[in-house]
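Design job #97: recover the sequence.
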């Protein structure tokens, strides 16, 4: 009986590893990614507000946009790429929509 229980436990270990790898880790990664996305979105909003104050000259939209993208890239992509420039642009446009009434 003891040997049977031991073999059953040995059989369950790879199954448990597969469940953890297949379901639990992606779930945790998605939760972390959602939290990171919220943090990045808040920083993009702050960077947009700062760019609005720093570049008050007319027709300086391109400089403002580049400032925000450069700031967010430096802040979050220093060690590895967390967010792409296209994603930053989308968050930037969303932040601009919130600012304009």
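Job complete. Output follows.
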């Amino acid at each position: 009986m003891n040997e049977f229980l031991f073999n059953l436990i040995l059989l369950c270990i790879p199954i448990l590893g597969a469940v953890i790898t297949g379901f639990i880790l992606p779930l945790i990664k998605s939760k972390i990614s959602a939290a990171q996305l919220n943090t990045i979105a808040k920083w993009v909003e702050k960077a947009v507000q700062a760019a609005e104050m720093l570049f008050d000259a007319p027709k300086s939209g391109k400089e403002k946009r580049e400032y925000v993208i450069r700031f967010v890239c430096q802040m979050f992509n220093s060690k590895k790429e967390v967010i792409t420039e296209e994603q930053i642009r989308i968050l930037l446009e969303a932040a601009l929509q919130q600012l304009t009434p």
